[in-house]
Amino acid sequence: MSESFDPEKHHLLPLRGFEDLKIGEMFRLPSRTLGDGNFAAFQTLSLDNHPIHYDAEYCAAQGHPAPLAHGLQVLAFTAAGAGMFPHVIGPALIGFVEVSAKFLKAVYPGDTLYPALEIAALTPQRTTGLVTMRATVHNQHSALVLDGEHKYLLRLARG
């Protein structure tokens, strides 16, 4: 006897609602080593032509050992969709509603980045809840290169 398949029940992880989340809960994202291809792809996407991101001689004259990763490129590594958070909350997610970040240290080709999201605040509203997450990115030397915040709007189970 074969059981019927329901795509609505095909989840990577058991679903949890806003009410099940906990402050301090950590969602680590995959580490990545940045190569020249990452820099070229982001330049193409962003249309940023500043030589600090692609001209090694210009960078050397400014005191940098290599081109610098664009801050928005480093921020992109904190995208929740690269990790498990969206799979945990599933269809409760209404949207990604706010982001802020401080870029604390330079990121160069060859650096390996370790992004993470940590639940910092849970703000229930009438029919929705706001999840505030601290976004961090460390490099291979354990230096914090980005510190920021994401906010996600979720449906409440009882809403």
CATH architecture verdict: Roll
Task: Please give the count of helices.
Answer: 4
> Structural class, please?
alpha+beta
Q: Outline, from the CA principal axes?
A: elongated
For the CA atoms, what is the radius of gyration?
19 Å
Mean pLDDT rating: 93
User: Major beta sheet, specifics?
Assistant: 6 strands, antiparallel
CATH superfamily: Hotdog Thioesterase
User: Could you tell me how far the N terminus lies from the C terminus, measured between alpha carbons in angstroms?
Assistant: 38 Å
Keywords:
159 residues; alpha+beta; Thiol Ester Dehydrase, Chain A; 6-stranded antiparallel β-sheet; 4 helices; 6 strands; 18% helix; elongated
List the topology elements.
Layout lengths: L25 E3 L3 E2 L2 H11 L9 H6 L9 H6 L8 H5 L3 E11 L8 E13 L3 E12 L4 E12 L4
Antiparallel strand pairs: 1-4, 2-4, 3-6, 4-5, 5-6
In words, what does this structure look like?
The chain is α+β, with helices and mostly antiparallel strands. It has one domain: Roll (Thiol Ester Dehydrase, Chain A), CATH 3.10.129.10. It has 4 helices and 6 strands, in the order ββααααββββ. The longest helix has 11 residues. The protein is elongated. The protein starts with 25 loop residues before the first strand and ends with a strand. The mean pLDDT is 93.
